[in-house]
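task queued by scheduler; priority normal; single chain, no ligands, no partner chains; default sampling; output format set to structure tokens
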Amino acid sequence: MSSTTTPPQVSTTPSAADRAATVLADRRALPARLEAFAGAFTALAELLRSAPDAQVLARVRDPRLLARWPVEDADCRRGTALLAESAVAQEDVGRIRRDYDRLFFGPGTMKAPPYESVHRSDEHLRLERRATPVRAAYAAFGLAAPRPDREPDDHVALELEFVGTLCARGLDALEAGDEAELALVVRGICAFLDEHLLAWAPRCLTQAANASTTFFYQGAAALGLGTLTRARAVFRP
């Protein structure tokens, strides 16, 4: 009986470096894309880190600000409309805080746990060891969670903020003409989205959209889903 050898399977999935090269090749679109995602991810981080106080709530629901949401997507349009509806419905700080606690904080079972480890571990628990790769990704760019004793590294707000920070650094590198730094940062964005944020945050935000009792967090979740959809299209071509 003759034996046959099966050739090794070669992955056809583009690496982060390949994706970064594609993103970098479209130099005309790159500045606007980095600027848009820097703004969107930073704003989303603020929306999802904690419940807003009265001052933040007024700013977030300002119609002029909502009209300037930097990422274009159907879910983003729905999200800004829902945040506007939150103002019309006069959802106050107390009601929005209670909804935030139900979704993301507790007490009791969180409806939309905001931790990567909960969504990606077999135990569905917040696990320190699962957050280690996230911490390493931050450290590679000289960053760290500001309050690791209170806010675990793999909180959705921190991961969103990290990508927003990298986008801003990419803009700085573009303006400085630093091609090496620009390439490094864009690879970091592509890798982190692929390995972390896009692998779990859409599920978290979908849970939040479905379980929210306020227009405010239905809107925040829709903005997040739309922004991530666009990020997938741009940084995972």
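post-processing summary
- The two ends are 46 Å apart (CA to CA).
- Residues 1-11 have pLDDT under 50 and may be disordered.
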